[in-house]
Amino acid sequence: MSHLRLALLLGMTVALAPLAIDAYLPAFPSIANDLDISHSQVGLTLSAYIMTLGLGQLIGGPLSDRYGRRPILFGGLLMFAAGGVMVSLADTLSEMVLWRMSQAVGGAFCAVSVPAIVRDQVSGQDAARLFSLIGLIMFIAPAAAPSLGTLMLALGDWHWIFLVLAAYAGCLMVALNLALFPKLAPQSLAKTPVRTLVTNYLLVLKHGTTMRFIGIQVLCFSMMLLFITHSSFIYQEWYGLSNSHFSILFAANIGLMAVLNLGNRPLLKRFQSAVLVRAYVILQCIALVALVTAVWFGGALWMVATCIILAVGSQGGIVPNNMANAMEFFPRLSGTASALLGASQFTIAGAVSTLSSSFGDLSLMTIAAGMLTCSLGAAALALGAPGAVNRAKSL
């Protein structure tokens, strides 16, 4: 299978997670009014989804190594679709949180399968290039997601957003069954013994270099999720922007991600992916220092938005390079390594998001300072990371 077709299909699959996160952001005020809850309480439905998305990967990863990518991925798509339908029928906050968590388990099985399939097929710099191509395709989803949510709100109400997500999962099942799995190399279905499904995590946890890259991923994702959780508050309540203007600014973050992701592929011909991780993390940290400074001095919307776009957009260069390095040492345990990576970033970032939501509507300075704190931690890890990954000891 060509890398372009593989990237297209896997990019469409991994896009489920950002779609389920971003599509209903413009509907936060409507959901709050409909369920008679506060704006910050709606954020709990996002935090619950993120945390469950991470924990679910701890189950899905080893099962994927044992039983193959297809049954785990398809089971996840079915659960995601069913959860989306039930969320659309929820009429209380508790019901919505419950079904969002159910939807997240399905999304977790899908999310953990994609990096594992990539590692099954390629390694090293080739893996970084494929992750970049997948990311470039995937970025279309979060860029369009708020606009999709705004369109659904114009045509009907927030319930339709989740019905559309369920329909998308159903279409993915058909596409993957016809165009992906019949073309994959046989080693993507290699099985690991049942008795080692849990103990294999210890192999990953004891690998210092891998855990350093996982730490970078966790902190950078926590920074981004802090923004996503409070993005509606920042732009729609703090600055009073409309749904359409909010969608445009949100899409600008994804646009820069796509640009940096596209530029990452030719850069990989000249630089090691580990070096690029360090450079992008430092760029992100500088942007957040500028953001805190702009907020401190009461900077205008365009200044704040520019800093946010640069910080969040830097993820387009961080993620593909960092994932390739984190996965490199585990060709035979790619599902387990992918699960630990995904679970760590989503559960810890989800906890950070939940903690921030529990304090109610925070000030813009508090949000910006929290984002900078996460980025400083990532920069410390990146500065100590190796300049190149030695693949001599792969598991």
UniProtKB/TrEMBL annotation:
Alphabetized GO MF terms: xenobiotic transmembrane transporter activity
Subcellular location: Cell inner membrane; Cell membrane
Pfam families hit by this protein: MFS_1 (PF07690)
Key words of the record: Cell inner membrane, Cell membrane, Membrane, Transmembrane, Transmembrane helix, Transport
Gene3D superfamilies: Multidrug resistance protein D
Keyword Calcium: no
One GO cellular component, as annotated: plasma membrane
Keyword Transport: yes
Alphabetical GO biological process terms: xenobiotic detoxification by transmembrane export across the plasma membrane
Membrane topology: Multi-pass membrane protein
InterPro entries in UniProt: Efflux_drug-R_Bcr/CmlA (IPR004812), MFS (IPR011701), MFS_dom (IPR020846), MFS_trans_sf (IPR036259), Sugar_transporter_CS (IPR005829)
Main localization of the protein described in the UniProt heading: membrane
Domain of life: Bacteria
Domain annotation Major facilitator superfamily (MFS) profile: ranges: 6-395
Transmembrane segments: 38-60, 72-90, 96-118, 130-154, 160-181, 213-234, 246-263, 275-296, 302-321, 333-352, 364-389
NCBIfam families: efflux_Bcr_CflA (TIGR00710)
Family per similarity comment: Belongs to the major facilitator superfamily. Bcr/CmlA family.
The protein, known as: Bcr/CflA family efflux transporter
